[in-house]
């Protein structure tokens, strides 16, 4: 799932340890020697002995897509001509290196009025993962995110970050949530749950739930009140990722009526609580 | 009772004794500590000015409000601040507690523009150094009252601020040294209890002879939104009124507990007495043991029926209670020592008997009565 | 020129247009508390606009940790206030703290130093503004937001409190209004004394933005609770008044209304 290039900001995705969305993925191996590096949906295939160089570009125009098959490797031509940088977080004692790398990357994409030809994306997976040395340095992590946010604001880029709130303090989690412009959370669906199967249509295809907590409000003070904030994550025909709206639309508080949509979801439509 | 506190502060210390020390303690649910502090401050000032108190002057250590605030406060309460240099010194720990402004002035970034006030102010630029703070307080006090036997009072408007910059033991040491100084008449300070660890509050309570705790009329629940109607009405109720619980450590070692209600108005704070809560206080004092120390009504009646061994039993004479008016001669002729087991009913037997007169009606256990109070020396 | 008053202005004591200054009574400290679900930033925007009305000579010193100038500019523009012009006229002083260098946790000195510098800049700006008689008592210092200042200070909340205390002294010395925003839900799960509790003690006026108990709604974005504690200065200010009402945020203004009164 790629990001619309006009939005800028910091996405924050919370996820539960048992389940991860294979979306944008950063390699865990540092491949600094390679000039043309890879980002891949199934990264294992592209590192180690499978590294290759490609200069292919179709019709000279970069192509974007939001339709992908999670089971297949990404077509090579989508990777060509792209500048992709991969950094391992596991071995760094602190975040200074990451900060510098992001800084260099973003320096190539300064903000300018007019047509945006090229948008940058920074994706960080499992930011507070306990196996990383810096993971117990709360303030360092917050400083880095704040610094990243500042850099992003002044460049044509967007950053998406995932972190497990269960391994950090509630207070730290809240701080990160406030730092985010857009805030999402994902939850797993229990397996073989007959009750849920009765309650949710298409339960068989569901792999998780996605909650939308906050949407970026840059240059405006008006909050976004969405019709739906809970989505089911479905894998249709074992190939396509689909997000389907689940909960009821927000109530019109003054008149007292409510808008009902099809499909109900028990207990998960309460915005603001993060069930983990 | 606020009055009793002010009296105790006014009377001050006896020779060789620690000066009375008052802790005013509040919390965010009832943040009226500053109001109570200001009230006490005004009363103490009034007593000093009227010459009624032991202390001749007041050293005010200002952490959380500016000296000009106190200048205005005293003025609004009718005190003559123009003559305050005779009896008041303010140690200003508010304007530049860490010397930041000093450093900026040196660099030329800012200029010094302290507001003018007719109150004599000494600026403290490093509140972390408690030794210096202590010496400054003493110096100011001695400067006010002279070197001899004259005493001065010390007021600290926020020990909470002081504790942000120094450890609890250093602060306790300063307060204790002030208390034991023979020129200090009394001390009082304000503390926000929920901004400290429990131990810090306990230490300060230990150091004081009087503890005034400010509590809300009704305690709000700790969780839940502030915006729901129940919480709002509670907040509203608590927004002007509250309760003041005072604990006095008396010289005789006993502790007196009192409670008052207060209401904060524009002109200050007003205290009103509360319907007696002494019963509640007494019950909480009685140690919780496995034995039931209280008597039910039936038990009380049954006990009244029990005849004590030496009292007269049904021979026509009513049980007499000694009321202290019979002469000693009359009573002694009737009392002869005799064996405790046998009670002779035959008055004419000529044998010895014990005639027992109770000196008063049944006394409740643990009564507040201090037998020494009856002494008329 | 928007002369209409609303519930928020009333609660803050801004509805009396007879007074010379259109800012909240001088020397006050205002704390805005919000949470992830309901942002309180609109209160800041409202106060900026109020302080920069053409028929007053108020100055706003804005310390921004959360958003860049462009964001506030665009928001206020829709509300009818041009921050670029105000900045050029020296009525809106913007301190961009977004990219304030974060020291790598090497000790207290650096943190204190950074905040001392910031305080120095603010004090200097206030002094310059206060030189002109018109501007006295109309200076507003705004901080957006305190939790990010904590991050910039590497978690040293004591230094942040020292900084706030010094800004507080500016309110007494120059009659400024100090407005700061902090996120209440960050501290609500913490045990013991918290930074926000200290700020609550310091504040004369507390404005709390919360979601409705009933959850999300399209025409009511949340509720505001305003506690005006005042200080015992013996003056007849609106003391210890508690108000609660709902709000809906729009691009050019915010509607405030009591629950159930919305037509």
Automatic annotation (TrEMBL), chain A:
Q: Which GO terms describe its biological process?
A: tRNA wobble uridine modification
Pathway field of the UniProt record reads: tRNA modification; 5-methoxycarbonylmethyl-2-thiouridine-tRNA biosynthesis
Cellular compartments per GO CC: cytoplasm; elongator holoenzyme complex; transcription elongation factor complex
Protein name in the entry: Elongator complex protein 4
Q: Which domain of life is it from?
A: Eukaryota
Keywords annotated in UniProt: Cytoplasm, Nucleus, tRNA processing
Ranges for the region named Disordered are: 253-276
UniProt family annotation:
Belongs to the ELP4 family.
Low complexity: compositionally biased ranges:
254-276
- Statement: the UniProt record of this protein carries the keyword Heme: no
Under InterPro entries, the record lists:
Elongator_complex_protein_4 (IPR008728), P-loop_NTPase (IPR027417)
State the compartments where it is located: Cytoplasm; Nucleus
TrEMBL record, chain B:
Pathway-wise, it operates in: tRNA modification; 5-methoxycarbonylmethyl-2-thiouridine-tRNA biosynthesis
Alphabetically list the UniProt keywords. Cytoplasm, Nucleus, tRNA processing
Which intervals carry biased composition (Acidic residues)? Answer: 360-377
Cellular compartment(s): Cytoplasm; Nucleus
Look up the domain of life of the source. Answer: Eukaryota
Residue numbers spanned by region Disordered: 333-377
**What InterPro entries is this protein classified in?**
Elp5 (IPR019519)
Where are stretches of biased composition, namely Basic and acidic residues? 344-359
- Record-linked Pfam families: Elong_Iki1
GO MF term set: tRNA binding
Family that this chain belongs to: Belongs to the ELP5 family.
Spell out the protein name for this chain.
Elongator complex protein 5
Organism (species) = Nyssa sinensis
| Classification lineage | Eukaryota, Viridiplantae, Streptophyta, Embryophyta, Tracheophyta
Automatic annotation (TrEMBL), chain C:
Q: Which GO BP annotation is one of this protein's?
A: tRNA wobble uridine modification
Q: In which pathway does it act?
A: tRNA modification; 5-methoxycarbonylmethyl-2-thiouridine-tRNA biosynthesis
Q: Which InterPro entries match?
A: ELP6 (IPR018627), P-loop_NTPase (IPR027417)
Pfam families, from UniProt?
A: ELP6 (PF09807)
GO CC, sorted alphabetically, is: elongator holoenzyme complex
Can you tell me which family this protein belongs to? Belongs to the ELP6 family.
Designated name of the protein = Elongator complex protein 6
Tell me what organism the protein belongs to.
Nyssa sinensis
